[in-house]
């Protein structure tokens, strides 16, 4: 198991390095001059050149990349537009001249929103998706199965911005059952934190639950006929306990892997949901950076999203290896 | 071999109530096209301590009876009628009700107490039957704790360890997962798990079919020993008459969901009343069947004796194909991302010849390298070292030289083990058979179709089968299609890799009869690969015995079977039931 773990962590590190290089390439793929944008429309040529030098854009690409990598590991000092030095602590994702703050700080300001949103949505996905899939599999062919399948198809086919506005209209404006979605830090007021995010959780969770429900159902149905499940029943184990202990374990691997991807994706920001409910999370920051040509922030958010995906996919693989000892061999 | 005495003394006390009493049992499965009967009115008794063999071919309903005795059928899709009544042995602590426990229609709560405690099951494929996620010790301990609620974890663990030792597995292996054990050990674990609660009735469904002969022998001996020791009644489900002869006191022959004949094993084996039983008993060749004789089948239970296999006068059999010091290594598993895995040898320096017109039998246990040799000879795998010659021409590069491989495939064709996997389900029979003709001959479409029709007739099918798809045929028919495809280009050498192992015994007899006819008619040379020594003895002129990639013995059939030189060959022969 240790060897397997080590190999997977090394692989993840290699993937992250490759993504960093690719994201860094964005600076040069962009159609506009980063220095010009950073400096702003009122700059003259000399000022732009000063900014260019301050940003290190006059250096060879390789040395810029190594500076960037070095910043990620140890932090570095970056010159602001006016030439004043700014300390960017490790892991330094660069400095946003648009936001006038290190990219990491900008992300850190918004990360609580994103993580709160993702955490709640994941809970909904697990309860609604995996739960519905389990029930549908155990009650296959019944009305409950068909109802849940239909419900999930609805979730898979409806768009967040449609469902979000519809629910907001009914639950907030018409009936007043829920407050208008807003973000209140968990530490400040847990009750208002949950109330303010409940609607986004439901919408984001419901829309993503469908895939999990379908996969859970089909995996459970497939595993149910495996020999070891029959053996467990032949031992005298009850139906429900058999399915929870044996069938679910056999069915879990693809679900865990999908869940790893989903967690990574949600932690990278849920732009549409954030926009619909006016929440300022990482997703919104990323899209604003793209539209505003704020390249350091774009690269930073891309890296962060990639980081979460790679980390959670790796964690998921390790969980799968823990669940199924045969995986550790390969 | 008829070893009826091997079953040991009949249990006394047949007058006492049977451990298991089955009356007018019917089982049918609901399908979209209506109910399909699997068992239609079967009745029998199983006395305490008795071993009853439930014998029949696939689809005869024998496994269904086993599942019904545990109430393991899906109640939503299965109708079970009649009666299955358990009479717990005295002192076994079960229900005190003298009428016993009725399994058919019993509520789940009752069935849960029966399963694994009063009636336990040993399934065919231990790798499939054991959970890959839990250690074998944990699986055994669980079986114990389910029925001993007040037993602690420690007691269950100790009991599991003791049971492992009892079936011949060191208790230290309790922490292993099933994939870390050999096939024989896995089956021992399954047996230990079934017997851990000392059940009154043990149902064993093809418990040794997936095992090599020597391991099969050991496992059967173990089962019989444990069964005699505990006095458990055993229902042994199998289609292998040899297994029945070795283990069972009585046998019940089933066909299409009905009992055909029932009686003492020795009597039925020696003089069965029903022609079906006679066919089933005679269909599998034994080490005493006259080699090359026509085997009885269900359609033809008493075949006319084949004209004595004329000892063909072959003054100097010319070598057709030849392996010379062939070695094949498989790439090993990497132990670290930086190092290459150590190569695993599959074939270690094998030299053998196949003469023109000869059938060479290649015998060995799983993993001995039989199929690898077949692939090398067919030009599908390049040997790591050594030469492969066909008609004196070096063909060892065929696997990497498409032109050579194509030329070779005109002369050498394969028949595979699994007739379900080896035919493309999306192609018609006509397409399957004419493809090699299209590649290798200049025949036009009409001529190819005529040839395909002729081939189908030759293998006992008819031209009307040409537009059908493989799924419309039975296993035996599919294997005939595979043979027709192999014969299409009139090859000189047929490599048949376990061609009858996946078939029912009577179908196996049909296909062997067909292959013997075709071989004589077309003067074919064959490499016949099998793990079944009796079949090889029946079918082959010469025999090569393979062990862990090395030849341990080669010789004429009579020499190898009558006077084996290698101790390993003797071991293999001793294991034949």
From TrEMBL, chain A:
Location(s) in or outside the cell: Cell membrane
InterPro entries per record: BPD_transp_1_N, MetI-like, MetI-like_sf
Keyword Thylakoid: no
Any one of the GO BP annotations: transmembrane transport
Bilayer topology: Multi-pass membrane protein
Coiled-coil positions: none
The keyword Cell wall biogenesis/degradation is assigned to this record: no
Domain ABC transmembrane type-1 span(s) in chain numbering: 111-320
Keyword terms, alphabetized: Cell membrane, Membrane, Transmembrane, Transmembrane helix, Transport
Family recorded in the similarity comment: Belongs to the binding-protein-dependent transport system permease family.
PANTHER family associated with the record: DIPEPTIDE TRANSPORT SYSTEM PERMEASE PROTEIN DPPB-RELATED (PTHR43163:SF6)
Protein name as it appears in the record: ABC transporter permease
UniProtKB/TrEMBL annotation, chain B:
InterPro entries: AAA+_ATPase (IPR003593), ABC_transp_ATP-bind (IPR050319), ABC_transporter-like_ATP-bd (IPR003439), ABC_transporter-like_CS (IPR017871), Oligopep_ABC_C (IPR013563), P-loop_NTPase (IPR027417)
Region (Disordered): 285-316
A GO BP entry: transmembrane transport
Domain ABC transporter: 20-281, 326-573
Entry keyword set: ATP-binding, Nucleotide-binding, Transport
Matching SMART domains: AAA (SM00382)
Residue spans of biased composition, Basic and acidic residues class: 303-316
One Gene Ontology MF term: ATP hydrolysis activity
Pfam families: ABC_tran, oligo_HPY
Similarity remark: Belongs to the ABC transporter superfamily.
Protein name from the UniProt record: ABC transporter ATP-binding protein
């Amino acid at each position: 198991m240790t060897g397997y773990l080590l190999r997977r962590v090394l692989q993840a590190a290699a993937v992250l390095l490759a993504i960093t290089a690719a994201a860094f390439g964005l600076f040069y793929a962009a159609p506009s001059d980063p220095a010009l944008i950073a400096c702003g429309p009122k700059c003259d040529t000399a000022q732009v050149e000063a900014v260019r030098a301050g940003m290190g854009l006059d250096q060879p690409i390789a040395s810029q990349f190594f500076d960037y990598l070095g910043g990620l590991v140890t932090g570095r000092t970056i010159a602001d537009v006016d030439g004043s030095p700014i300390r960017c602590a490790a892991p330094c994702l660069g400095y946003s001249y648009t936001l006038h703050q290190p990219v990491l700080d900008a992300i850190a300001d918004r990360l609580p929103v994103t993580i709160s949103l993702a955490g709640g949505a994941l809970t909904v996905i697990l309860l609604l998706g995996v739960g519905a899939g389990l029930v549908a599999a155990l009650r296959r062919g019944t009305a409950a199965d068909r109802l849940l399948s239909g419900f999930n198809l609805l979730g898979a086919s409806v768009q967040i911005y449609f469902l979000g506005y519809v629910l907001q209209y009914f639950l907030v404006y018409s009936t007043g059952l829920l407050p208008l979605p807003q973000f209140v830090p968990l530490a400040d007021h847990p009750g208002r934190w949950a109330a303010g995010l409940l609607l986004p959780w439901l919408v984001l969770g419901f829309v993503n639950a469908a895939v999990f429900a379908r996969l859970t159902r089909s995996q459970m149905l497939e595993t149910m006929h495996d020999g070891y499940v029959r053996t467990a029943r032949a031992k005298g184990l009850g139906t429900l306990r058999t399915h929870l202990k044996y069938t679910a374990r056999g069915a879990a691997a693809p679900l865990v892997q999908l869940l790893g991807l989903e967690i990574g994706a949600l932690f990278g920001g849920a732009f549409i949901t954030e926009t619909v409910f006016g929440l300022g999370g990482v997703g919104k920051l990323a899209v604003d950076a793209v539209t505003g040509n704020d390249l350091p922030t774009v690269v930073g958010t891309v890296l962060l999203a990639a980081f979460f995906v790679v980390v959670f996919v790796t964690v998921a693989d390790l969980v799968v290896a823990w669940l199924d000892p045969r995986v550790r061999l390969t | 071999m008829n070893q009826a005495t091997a079953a040991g003394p009949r249990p006394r006390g047949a007058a006492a109530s049977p451990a298991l009493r089955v009356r007018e049992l019917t089982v049918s499965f609901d399908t979209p096209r209506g109910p399909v009967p699997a068992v239609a009115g079967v009745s029998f008794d199983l006395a305490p301590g008795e071993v009853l063999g439930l014998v029949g071919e696939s689809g005869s309903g024998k496994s269904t009876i086993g599942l019904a005795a545990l109430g393991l059928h899906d109640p939503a899709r299965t109708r079970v009628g009649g009666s299955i009544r358990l009479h717990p042995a005295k002192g076994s602590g079960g229900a005190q009700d003298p009428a016993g426990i009725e399994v058919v229609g019993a509520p789940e709560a009752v069935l849960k107490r029966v399963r694994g405690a009063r009636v336990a099951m040993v399934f065919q494929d231990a790798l499939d039957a054991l959970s890959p996620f839990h250690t074998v010790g944990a699986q055994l301990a669980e079986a114990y704790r389910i029925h001993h609620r007040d037993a602690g974890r420690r007691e269950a663990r100790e009991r599991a360890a003791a049971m492992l030792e009892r079936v011949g597995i060191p208790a230290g292996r309790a922490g292993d997962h099933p994939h870390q054990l050999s096939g024989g050990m896995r089956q021992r674990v399954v047996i230990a798990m079934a017997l851990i609660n000392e059940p009154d009735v043990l149902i064993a469904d093809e418990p040794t079919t997936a095992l090599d002969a020597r391991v099969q022998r050991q496992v059967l001996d173990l089962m019989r020993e444990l069964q005699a020791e505990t006095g458990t009644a055993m229902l042994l489900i199998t289609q292998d008459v040899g297994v029945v002869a070795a283990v069972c006191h009585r046998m019940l022959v089933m066909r299409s969901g009905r009992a055909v004949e029932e009686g003492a094993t020795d009597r039925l084996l020696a003089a069965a009343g029903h022609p079906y039983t006679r066919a089933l008993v005679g269909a599998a060749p034994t080490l005493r069947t006259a080699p090359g004789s026509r085997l009885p089948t269900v359609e033809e239970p008493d075949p006319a004796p084949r004209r004595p296999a004329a000892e063909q006068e072959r003054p100097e059999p010319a070598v057709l194909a030849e392996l010379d010091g062939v070695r094949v290594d498989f790439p090993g598993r990497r132990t670290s991302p930086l190092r290459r895995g150590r190569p695993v040898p599959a074939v270690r320096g094998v030299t053998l010849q196949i003469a023109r017109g000869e059938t060479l039998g290649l015998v060995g246990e799983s993993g001995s390298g039989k199929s690898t040799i077949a692939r090398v000879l067919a030009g599908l795998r390049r040997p790591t070292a050594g030469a492969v010659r066909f008609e004196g021409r070096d063909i060892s590069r065929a696997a990497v030289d498409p032109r050579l491989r194509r030329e070779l495939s005109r002369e050498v064709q394969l028949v595979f083990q699994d007739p379900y996997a080896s035919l493309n389900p999306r192609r018609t029979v006509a397409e399957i058979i004419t493809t090699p003709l299209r590649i290798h001959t200049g025949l036009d479409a009409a001529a190819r179709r005529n040839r395909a029709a002729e081939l189908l007739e030759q293998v006992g099918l008819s031209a009307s089968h040409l537009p059908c798809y493989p799924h419309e045929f039975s296993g035996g028919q599919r294997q005939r299609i595979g043979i027709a495809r192999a014969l299409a280009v009139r090859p000189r050498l047929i490599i048949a890799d376990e061609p009858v192992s996946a078939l029912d015994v009577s179908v196996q007899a049909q296909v062997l009869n067909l292959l013997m006819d075709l071989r004589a008619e077309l003067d074919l040379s064959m490499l016949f690969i099998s793990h079944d020594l009796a079949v090889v003895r029946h079918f082959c002129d010469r025999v090569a015995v393979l062990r862990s990639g090395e030849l341990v013995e080669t010789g004429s059939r009579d020499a190898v079977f009558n006077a084996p030189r290698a101790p390993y060959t003797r071991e293999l022969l001793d294991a034949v039931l």
